Amino acid sequence: MPFPRFLSQCAPILVLVALITATGAQFGKLIPEQIDLLAAALGLIALAALIIYKKTPRWNFALLVPVALFAGGWLSRLPDSGRSWLGLVIFIAGAGLSAGLAYGARTSFGRLAGLLNPVLIVYLIGWAGIAFLKPVFWAPAAWAAVGALLFTLLSLGLLDEARASDPPAEPVPLAIDLFITYFNLWLAGAMVARYAEVLIPLL
User: Fold this and answer.
1) Who is most buried in 15, 53, 82, 159, counting CB within 10 A?
2) What pLDDT was estimated at residue 203?
3) How many CB atoms lie within 10 A of CB 39?
4) What is the DSSP letter of 166?
5) Beta-carbon count within 10 A of 185 CB
6) Residues 35-72: pLDDT tens digits?
7) Which of 87, 114, 95, 102 is nearest to 192 (CA)?
């Protein structure tokens, strides 16, 4: 997908989904905490259906909307570290770097996404280990920083693969992949910001 087509077809979908996610974050604050588990289960079901029907026209976008709403509601449950600006900086830097390299560098990064999938599984298992084992105090911040790098590289691979694809990549499936990747990049940045006082006491 050439950059002009990405801007005209895929980027507007990402902007719309970001607005839906922000709306979900606002309404998520109004949902009683007693139904958090039910909401999380419904969100996971919607996400699974989205992955299954990612390439099915109309169904993919119809499922993307509730997933974005549930994602926003989940974001509303994250504690405010007081350093939200740091998470935003990490997100903008990661997303901007991946887009700049994908459409500006002459090197091909299209195979990155496939190569990093096993690393992604290890990363998710690592968070489960942190949750249950309660390791040293700096581990969550360091692991979140690893996640920020991982999802930056994943978005780079997705964008470069889409740029070089022939025929051009379909905008909605690409937007779905990028939304999931960017959402996790945002989460990683937010986690780094939350634990920033552990690694950078002067912030």
Assistant:
1) 159
2) 47
3) 18
4) S
5) 27
6) 778 888 888 899 999 999 998 988 999 999 999 999 98
7) 87
End-to-end CA distance of the chain: 40
Residue 192 in this model has a pLDDT that exceeds 50: yes
Q: Residue 9: enclosing H or E segment and its boundaries?
A: none
Q: How far is CA 38 from the centre of its chain?
A: 22
Mean pLDDT score of the chain: 82
165: which residues sit within 8 A by CB, 6+ positions away? 1
Q: What is the pLDDT of residue 166?
A: 67
With vertex at residue 38, the alpha carbon angle to CA 49 and CA 70, rounded to the nearest 5 degrees, is 55
- The model's pTM is 0.84
pLDDT (mean) for 79-100: 79
* Cβ-contact 30, 194 below 8 angstroms: no
Contacts of 155 (CB under 8 A, 6+ apart): 94, 95, 98, 99, 178, 181, 182, 185
Spell out the domain ranges in the chain: 3-199
Q: How far apart, in whole angstroms, are the C-alpha atoms of residue 3 and residue 99? A: 10
Strands (E), 89-191: none
Task: For the chain, list the strands marked E by DSSP.
Answer: none
**CA 66, CA 129: separation in Å to the nearest integer?**
29
Candidates 12, 157, 171; CA nearest to 99 is 157
Looking at the predicted structure, is the pLDDT value of residue 1 above 60?
no
CA atoms within 13 A on the CB side of 109: 22
Residue 196 token pair: 């920033």
